[in-house]
Amino acid sequence: MKIAVVREDAPGETRCAATPETVKKFTALGAELAVESGAGESASVADGDFEAAGAAVGPRDTVLAGADAILCINAPDPASLGAAKGGALLVGALDPLRRRDAIEAYAGAGLEALAMEWMPRITRAQSMDILSSQSNLAGYKAVIDGAAVYGRAFPMMMTAAGTISAARVFVMGVGVAGLQAIATARRLGAQVSATDVRSATREQIQSLGAKPIFVENVAGIEGEGAGGYATEMSEEYQKAQAELVSGHIAKQDIVITTALIPGRPAPRLISDAQLATMRQGSVVVDLAADAGGNVEGCVPGENVARHGVTVIGASNLARSLAADASALFARNLYNFLSAFWDKDRGGPVLPDDDEIVKAIRLTQGGKVVNERLSGQAS
Ligand code: NAD
Fold this sequence. Notes:
The protein has 378 residues and is of the alpha/beta class. It contains eleven helices and 19 strands.
């Protein structure tokens, strides 16, 4: 089994799909690793580090030649994979809905594309879940970025010159990123409150020492809902939530929004009129910026000043923690492939009827085979 790791070519990408640690782990399974020159550079891993871990380092075509699996962060340009052999696995965050043309091209080239972001939310797959590993880091970084722009301190400080009061942080959306944002803001000494539409998050908020702020008069989502994800809320709920937020937000210094609904634009949680009620110098970090934004007027990748409030359009924050984000992503890939490793065959065997395989396999035998893509025009 030869595993190739390509250097990312997407603009702004800093991460790498392998680390010396996962190279060693794959080698221990009996695989041969080949890493494209410079693949780890922006994640603080030198070519020499990969070589020391046992990988061959070289140009893309040499690395791809004869490879049985290709590891990547983002979907590579299909034209750059000409040296790959038919039947090779292509494993990474392939963005199938937006990169439909690339997926068709992978099928045409006989590659078996596997989209790691479609990993099902089942216990067995938790260690393979790239959305969770990257969201966790993004939640942390959102607080750090917010703190860097905020012109005041986070913790309460009693000094000889007088007392500084603790920053008030409000986290909207308590999934993986939101939980880490709460924990990080608490560690920095802020007074934290949080909200979500899923009632199961109330206890999680409390267990992190934050205050739950919930819509009480209209029911939210009970139980696990749609596989742990939120759905779009009724008009009645949205109205009640807007009233709740209006009352709370004017007293906050930092707001971190993380609310997402799979397959839909992000829900609008903060209007321009609500922003105007916040005090001068407040900061809003919108982690849903790339999905349309939770905050009115948010621009992905930019800091926008509105009514004296800085709105940070946080875009792909995991990229700004390239070394850790790569380490976790690379382990997700290793955990996935090693879980299906067949010792006798010396490589992964992906059964057609496995829940994980069915969810993430996009192409096979020259065709697009995933249910979520079939019937969808290219
Ligand atoms: P997500 O990124 O889809 O959404 C972030 C949060 O926003 C969610 O908590 C969601 O409920 C919330 N939200 C959506 N609409 C909202 C609104 N209008 N107002 C307020 N909040 C809103 O979610 P996520 O971070 O991927 O995680 C969601 C859940 O799934 C968590 O409980 C997590 O632990 C679970 N999970 C399980 C697995 C697994 O078992 N393998 C993997 C990942 C996540």
